[in-house]
Amino acid sequence: MTNPLIRQKSYVNGQWVEAESARVHPIVNPANGEQIATVPDFGKADAERAVEAAHTAFKTWRTTTAKERAQILRRWYDLIMQHQDDLAELMTLECGKPLAESKGEVAYGASFVEWFGEEAKRTYGDAIPTPKNDRRILAIKQPVGVCSAITPWNFPLAMITRKVAPAIAAGCTAVVKPAEATPLTALALADLAEQAGFPKGVLNIITASHGVDVGEVLSTHPLVSKVSFTGSTPVGKALIKQSADTVKRVSMELGGNAPFIVFDDADIDAAVEGAMASKYRNTGQTCVCVNRFLVQDSVYDAFAQALAEKTKGLTVGNGLDDGVQQGPLINEAGRQKVETLLKDATDKGAKILTGGQPHALGGNFFEPTVLTDITPDMRLSQEEIFGPLSAITRFKDEDEAILLANDTPFGLAAYFYSGNLARIWRVSEALDYGIVGINEGIISTEVAPFGGMKESGLGREGSHYGIDEYLEIKYLCMGGL
Ligand code: ADP
Q1: Which of 47, 69, 45 shows the shortest CA–CA distance to 58?
Q2: Which residues have CB under 6 Å of ligand 1?
Q3: Which side of the chain, N or C, has fewer Cβ within a 10 Å radius?
Q4: Which residues are annotated as active site (predicted)?
Q5: What's this model's pTM, rounded to 2 decimal places?
Q6: pLDDT digit string (tens) for 44-92?
Q7: Which helix (H) or strand (E) element contains residue 394?
Q8: How high is the ipTM of this complex?
């Protein structure tokens, strides 16, 4: 399979480079195990060079006007959209998601580039009424400096643009380490950034076969001012600790354990539709995918049956094939985790309504599955499933639903369905989550603040809040007037 956007070198200081060690690591298609390409396996010294390049570039980039930065971002946005089909195919090849979802991700990912290019021009400060007549007080916003971004494989494009676009728009420079499984989409983005006219060193994309060494440089190097990470909670905690020695700013978008509550006053058809969209997106492998369905007694059976019926109808296969709705899991470890969680649940009394087996296609494929009689002691109630298992728990009343929903250290996305306005306000305010979908299963958009409470993270991405993560506020006191 040849794709015109495949690049097999890292991008540092405007150059396409190998690792100093000349080591490479293979990128394989999770749908069939075939090797697609190889990319450099960077070590610490390679990563340090990228940070130094970003630091040199920052000295000039920070002096550009917002309008200049907006124009370059706009060109990058246009190029990403012009290459939507090739980018989408590349993404499906390396991460397995169905082509239609990959195309959706290109548009979604590009929307952050468009949005933050526009926001670059609106990073206003304040003129603050003075407490003394001989002085004036101002607050201005300035770029924080070199930003590192460490991103996961489940959104190979959007998790990069969501961090890099606000950073670059703010006047920062960036070093990105994409996930080891999905660096090709990232390198394609670097190619398009080069074509868009990014000056050398403003955006650097470095690849590695594992996150630890490069991640250490990106979170400890004194020239890095800010670390933005999306991935698992344990790695996020390690990065926060590593960043502490040099007091870096951090943005963390970590794991979730999303509840999806269906109250007895909900429109059940709409709830099932929202459930399908939220649960099975990217084969269950997103941090905002439903992890726990909580359904009120009187509508429990109807909801479970309808969800099972729809789940049974999902088409599983290679994401490049027409009509496929569910791709493979990212790798064997991902599939084994699903099997382990499923076995733990059935051992403790869960019942399988549909699915429950490795898929006949073999490899990393697993049958979309619906389980009922789920209880909080089962591992899949406590851990992120990251796979196509719908696990349904029964509740009696609103208080119990909220108690169950909040009974987790995580707090990223929650969803609920209800037709009662007073309940909608009560429940929205009671849920300890950064994002709440109300009668809606798909919540991501560049115009809204995305991020988690509790151990799901720090900071917000997207919206007008998102650029503040890359800006310092400086107070100017002008005296002697
Ligand atoms: P996921 O379950 O999404 O793979 P991870 O947290 O393992 O979540 O990975 C997300 C990103 O973090 C990837 O780019 C990965 O290479 C990187 N990573 C993994 N371990 C570390 C580490 N110890 N330090 C820095 N980055 C890491």
Answers
A1: 69
A2: 150-153, 177, 179-180, 211-212, 215, 231-232, 235, 238-239
A3: C
A4: 253
A5: 0.97
A6: 999 999 999 999 999 999 999 999 999 999 999 999 999 999 999 999 9
A7: strand 389-395
A8: 0.95
